[in-house]
# Entry
Amino acid sequence: MKTSKYILYFVLCPIALIWASCEPKALNEEDVFVSEESLAQILEKENPEGYDIYNLNDFLDTFMTEEGTYHNDTTPYRERSYDAAHGIYLYSVDTIRTSGRGIYIRGRITTDDYAGNFYKSMVIQQIVGGEQQNLRISVDLGSSHGMYQMGQEILIRCNGLAVGRYANQPQLCVPSYNNNIYAMNASQKVGWCPGRIPSSVFRRNTRMIGTPDVSQLQYDELTLVDLYKQIELKPSANAAGMDKVRKADGRLVIIKDVHFTGKTDDNGTIKDCIYAHPDSSGLANVFAPSTQNIGYPQSRILQDQGSNTICCSNSEYCKFATYYLPGADSTGVTGCQYYEGQVRGILGWYLDKAATLKDNKLDGMEWSVTPRGIPGIGINDILMYYQGDTDYPWIPEEFNPKTYHK
# Structure
């Protein structure tokens, strides 16, 4: 009996040791986050030919051209992206060399994907001389903000990646070729455009500096009057005008003293929102009714006490897509005018069809602010109050299909 016991020990002990050796090592802070003090030493070690860390605007000026790498390719950019009269490309891709000196950018993440408006994408912010510089990043990583949280500063090695514009919005990306011949307006859409950086490539090229700190994010708090003093409502369709538009894209803003009008920009035509089922009507009085899976952002118009307007842009796939606009309900949109306040989020200019360029101006209502959430869903970016009284905040209400009546 004694002998059997010792034999059992000899059999089980090696197995226990094998199991123990298979357990992953517990992570500590140094394994995940790089300190500012050790950063230079790490970069010098991995870049024997040297490296440069660019400010975001300098990065765009250095590596993003108007025509990009693929404009003369046998299969160039999508047809609708080019305006020959002004030499403007709304879609472009510039590849970045793989070898040589290290090419880096750094910035603090301003977005969060929980509510769904920034699916597989993020925006980073850098403060230079007290002013914001921003850049979108397209990355094929689901729930990316679980790891790369809002307020986290990151450093990205850009060698081997690309920089380009999707619907005129600059972003770090990789080249992608769209060959969907069955898409709506397919003849205008087949071609090269910015694509998502593969998740493994992004993780390999990205370091987190310090730990997340949302207090370091800078918001520009503005009325619409202030905003349109800084940027043109309808920018000039020339190199200087386009440069201003593209470098304002991604800016983190608080738009003050606005209300929802109960109207929408329907492909360039302003229409009233109505009480309707969000699955069947693009005019439904919610944040983002269905596009029947076409996937373009849905706009609902904000206005100040005067005549200045801006779009509030949301994805039909976001978690609050079918929530009523502040003041809207099953009776329509007459109550929208009574809910005033502010909308925070990411400033953008989404323009995917060059045909809208008219009279040397970028026509339409392309300026928008995209919130990261609403009260109770993600980041609370829409703060509205009944007649401006903070004692009576807007309480979000979702469209109820069970009580829907035509």
Q: What stands out?
A: DSSP finds eight helices and 27 strands in the chain. The radius of gyration is 25 Å.
